[in-house]
Structures are given as structure tokens and as C-alpha cells.
Design brief:
Keywords: Oxidoreductase. This is Aldo, keto reductase family enzyme. Pfam families: Aldo_ket_red. The longest helix is centred in the C-terminal third of the chain and has 20 residues. By secondary structure, this protein is of the alpha/beta class. It has 10 helices and 11 strands. The two termini are about 35 Å apart. It binds NADP nicotinamide-adenine-dinucleotide phosphate (NAP).
């Protein structure tokens, strides 16, 4: 598959990357094994996946540290690292969001050290702090870009008004927001804006935390300490509707001798408004399986069928 270019930069990458919040993200998921995390990253690089998407917040530096270890021995020019910051840990251990220019510069310095690398291909402002004017936060990242410490300026978790403020000087290269076939709000206003301003889009939760892989059934229930227990997608009539929709993707999967997750990922890969898809994984086998999506070329009819199947009015 041809590589994609990020925003207005010369950063290029494969359109299927790896989400690494389950690599060292002990604050997000129970029972993670750091050695498995390292294997997940190496499996991705060995399978030709080149974009590694991480953040300070995944394990408060642990994901970045494990990636720093995993990439030893790999040619740095052959893969891209995207990380995020804006979380400041206070003296008493609380986490506060700080997207001030000075703190973002500190975040980049610290991420470079944990990742054992000289530059970041993308640095995202993970969250806005609600105080710092976003164009000033982006201007600080532009200084780091000019200095060669980062190659592309990213933003995440912004409303449309915040995105416009951040991109006031047309410096934003890439936007990472929640988007998947179950949550398609970005299509109305965000996608046209990003297209017009040459900003790449990365959807997070592409597999809806596993719901779009076809492994759940209407009878599946989740224990109260599982985050899916209270997630509306995994509850009631909405959950049953989604499970039925996903079952219908199985017919297309069979035609391609593929898995449902691979077909869903292939749909994003064919979507012109999506730049890089970054499914997460808990095991190297999931990475290996998801990488196969790059080999699947959905026909225009199949693409339209999936588009219709998950049209927003069917999921009120
Ligand atoms: N910018 C932000 O604020 C933000 C927020 C959230 C996430 N992210 C990024 O987006 C990435 C993707 O999000 P995500 O990982 O939370 O969710 P996701 O990609 O929607 O789902 C990933 C999960 O689905 C399951 N899975 C993956 N491949 C599978 C396969 N082939 N078969 C069956 N199950 C499979 C695994 O969980 P189980 O095995 O437990 O089912 C995996 O952890 C993250 O890793 C992170 O890098 C960014």
C-alpha cells in the first residue's frame, strides 16, 4: 500500500500504524505484561507497520520507555514515532493538564529521553488546559519543529472551535480524535475543515475497543470493574444493534477470507478523510492479524455497503 504524507510536512508513513496504550499502560488496563508490550512493538515493526502512536499518559511514561527499549536495533529512519503530552504530575502525585508553551517544551525533552531518540515524528498536544491560547501552544511546537526536535505538529481532543483557534496560523499538521464506524460526528464539520487546511486525521478507538472485531455476542456481559460495563456502546439495545451490524460484516469478510477486524480496518484505509489508522493490541498475534488489513482492497460496493450498514441514523 502506498505511504501517506502527514499534513504540510515531509513525514511519510504506512497508513496502518500501532496504537500503544496497552504497551505499558498499566493505569488504563489491568494485567499488562511489559515484556509482551515490547513484543507487540517489535511485531509491528517486523510486519512493516511504521507508525507507533504513544503518549506520556500511557503508564505515565512507561509506554514511551518500553518503546524506547523495543526500537533498539531497528533503523530509526524506517519508522515514525508519534507521542503526546500535556499532563503534569504535581508534587502530591495529582495529574493536571498543562498545555502552556514552557511545559510542552519540557514534555518533548522528557519524551525524547524516555524514547531514546533524537527527534519525534509527531508531537500531539494531548489535551488543551482551557487556559493557554491554543495558537500560542502550537507556536511553541513550531519552535521545536524549526529546531528539528519534532517533525510534525499534532493536536488531540479538541472541539471544532478549539481546532480553529489552534490552527489560527495554519501550523497544525495532524489531528487525532475519536472516530470509528459507531461514532461518526467528525464527518460533518471536522473532515471538511481538515481537508481544506491540509491537516491529516488519525481516528482513535478504530475498533471501538474490540467491539468492531466481531468477537462479542448479544449475550456478552462485562464485570463491574471492566470499563466496558458502563460504556453505552456495550449496553442495552444499542449493544444488540451493533453486534447485529458487525455480524453482517462477516459475509464480506468471508468473501475476502479475512477477519471482521481486518475488513473494518480496510474500510478506514479506503476512507480518503483518514490518514493513519492506529488499532491497539494486547498481544502480538492481534498486531499480526491487523497488519493483514493492508492486503485487503474493498470494492466500491463493499465500501458503500459498510458505510450504509453503520449509518448514524441506525444507531440512535
Ligand atoms: N489521542 C487520544 O486521546 C487517544 C485516546 C485513546 C486512544 N488513543 C490511541 O488510539 C489507539 C487505539 O485505541 P485503543 O487501542 O484504545 O482501541 P481500539 O484500537 O479501538 O481497540 C483495540 C483493542 O481491541 C482488541 N483487538 C485489537 N485487535 C484485535 C483483533 N485482531 N481481534 C480481536 N480483538 C482485537 C484489543 O483489546 P482486547 O484484546 O482486550 O479486546 C485491543 O486492545 C490507542 O492504542 C492509542 O494509541 C488516543
Amino acid at each position: 500500500m502506498t505511504s501517506v504524507k502527514i499534513g504540510k510536512t515531509n513525514v511519510t508513513t504506512q497508513p496502518l500504524g500501532l496504537g500503544t496504550n496497552a504497551v505499558g499502560g498499566h493505569n488504563l488496563f489491568p494485567n499488562l505484561d511489559d515484556q509482551v508490550g515490547i513484543k507487540i512493538v517489535r511485531q509491528a515493526l517486523d510486519d512493516g507497520i511504521t507508525m507507533l502512536d504513544t503518549a506520556f499518559a500511557y503508564g505515565m511514561g512507561q509506554s514511551e520507555k518500553l518503546i524506547g527499549q523495543a526500537i533498539q536495533g531497528y533503523d530509526r529512519s524506517k519508522f515514525q514515532i508519534a507521542t503526546k503530552g500535556a499532563q503534569r504530575v504535581t508534587a502530591n502525585g495529582d495529574v493536571v493538564i498543562d498545555s502552556s508553551p514552557a511545559f510542552l517544551k519540557q514534555c518533548v525533552t522528557d519524551s525524547l529521553e524516555r524514547l531514546q531518540t533524537d527527534y519525534l515524528d509527531i508531537f500531539y498536544i494531548h489535551f488543551p488546559d482551557g487556559k493557554t491560547p491554543l495558537n500560542e501552544a502550537v507556536a511553541a511546537l513550531n519552535e521545536l519543529k524549526q529546531a528539528g526536535k519534532i517533525r510534525a505538529i499534532g493536536v488531540s481532543n479538541l472541539s471544532m472551535d478549539q481546532l480553529r483557534e489552534a490552527n489560527q496560523d495554519n501550523l497544525v499538521d495532524i489531528d487525532e480524535e475519536q472516530y470509528n464506524l459507531l461514532h461518526r460526528d467528525a464527518e460533518a464539520e471536522r473532515f471538511p475543515y481538515l481537508r481544506e487546511h491540509q491537516i491529516s486525521f488519525v481516528p482513535f478507538f478504530p475498533l471501538a475497543s474490540g467491539l468492531l472485531t466481531g468477537k462479542y455476542h448479544a449475550e456478552t456481559s462485562f464485570p463491574s470493574d471492566d470499563i466496558r460495563h458502563d460504556n453505552p456502546d456495550f449496553n442495552g439495545e444499542r449493544f444488540t444493534t451493533i453486534v447485529n451490524q458487525v455480524e453482517q460484516v462477516e459475509q464480506i469478510a468471508r468473501q475476502h477470507h479475512a477477519k471482521v477486524a481486518q475488513i473494518i480496518l480496510a474500510w478506514y484505509l479506503k476512507n480518503p478523510d483518514i490518514s493513519v489508522v492506529i488499532p491497539g493490541a494486547k498481544h502480538p498475534a492481534q498486531v499480526q492479524s491487523n497488519a493483514q488489513a493492508l492486503q485487503i482492497d474493498l470494492s466500491a460496493a463493499e465500501y458503500a455497503e459498510i458505510d450504509q450498514l453503520f449509518s448514524p441514523e441506525k444507531l440512535q
